[in-house]
């Protein structure tokens, strides 16, 4: 079964902007999937529709076979979302942020508290759990967002640029943590601008540009199909995925 | 979600709101207590003795139910409108609930319960303050509690609808300032409609807050300018209308989702 199945998804905003133009995408169960694209390509809109934060114009989104228009509540129990923007209440304690999130999924406090403490410990936030969230460093805030996104043990975890603005060491530890989640059967859909990391981590990749999928397949398939350009002598050359990304998304 | 899980989600929304309102108690509880103390002092102790009796009771005793309602109305409304608006515009923390399986009606119930808790607590605080200035008589406790609860439910629902629709901070200030406050002050907090000349009496009687205050006042003093049945039916009708609006808006994501 596929973790995520998007078919002919269209989203036109009230302003008339067509953010998604009949997008179709499949994320296999247990995958570490990279959804890449330049700013404004439609990644966050696609994630928003999947998570139920954006109303679609047409098309279908199925999470583990459940249509999120027909059974929105059931489909949401399976998704964990780590959004791009930090959106927890800065006045709350980190522990409360995570435990409250569990509450919205119907998990009572006596179960949520020890589970939240364990996740905060795993992410290196245990010592900070009773302070104010606003006092956390940028990297800690990102980790708190991950803790909040996984407290209900989702089967599909969607991470929208989770490492934006995070230093190398912390990024590496976050990737390692996320990899341990995939070994437990969690499917991860990731957007990131760190293409070398996506190249290393992800089995499948899709590249979206101007609301359309321009490449989709296993990482190796996409790299082989598109990384054909010559290397100009004396010029900087990025990783293979970076070159493919630029080739497919640059203005012609 | 199972009913038990829905209850957990409902409890979580309330708990979060109650923790917030107690954390910032100088903003949530204190202002109404200070304002009503001044009203009691000025209209009760200073001016009340010159006004004499209204409906056969001392003036200060007459204004107590109205001032309690003033606090309940403004606080219930302000709580839900502000909490909804701020969770939409300051960091989008509303998304925490919107991505979860919490049904729209549970979200509405949780937010409204927060508004009711604040409205009722502030109302009770004002009532306690009134004891410093006058004695308390209760004609019918059931009517007092019923109107206290229903009024805060209606205003919390109305505030929630306002908070969902508001697109800027002005959006949650316009209604309380230019609609709610005039309705409350013209709704008979400080006077009986029977004492008003013709046209003003008519105007007062199309003010829904007038019926709410009179119903509540009946619970204390046993006197009212309108039949209590009218007041009760109006409150129930308003609750049904605003409940329908709130659940519809949140279920559809209007004003919340893009």
How many domains would you count in the coordinates of chain A?
1
Helical amount among residues of chain A, as a percent range? 25-40%
The ordered string of helix (H) and strand (E) elements of chain B is HHHHEEHHHHHHHH
- Cα distance, first to last residue of chain A? 38 Å
Terminus-to-terminus distance of chain B = 25 Å
Which CATH-level-2 architecture of chain A?
A: 3-Layer(aba) Sandwich
Low-confidence segments of chain A, given as residue ranges, are none
Shape of chain B: elongated
Question: What is the spatial order of strands in the main beta sheet of chain B?
Answer: 1-2
* Count of beta strands of chain A: 10
What number is the mean pLDDT of chain B?
Answer: 90
Strand content of chain A: 15-25%
Q: In percent, how much strand structure appears in the residues of chain B?
A: under 5%
Total of DSSP H or I helical runs spanning 4+ residues of chain A: 9
Describe the protein.
The complex is a heterodimer of chains A (252) and B (258). With 252 residues, chain A is an alpha/beta fold. Chain A has one domain: Rossmann fold (3-Layer(aba) Sandwich). Chain A has 9 helices and 10 strands. Chain A has a 6-stranded mixed beta sheet, with helices on both faces. Chain A is globular and about 55 Å long. The mean pLDDT of chain A is 88. In chain B, a hairpin with a 2-residue loop joins strand 1 and strand 2. Chain B is an all-alpha fold and 258 residues long. The mean pLDDT of chain B is 90. Chain B contains 12 helices and 2 strands. In chain B, 48% of the residues are buried. Chain B has one domain. The chains are: A alpha/beta (252), B mainly alpha (258). At the A-B interface, helix 1, helix 2 and helix 3 of A face helix 1 and helix 6 of B.
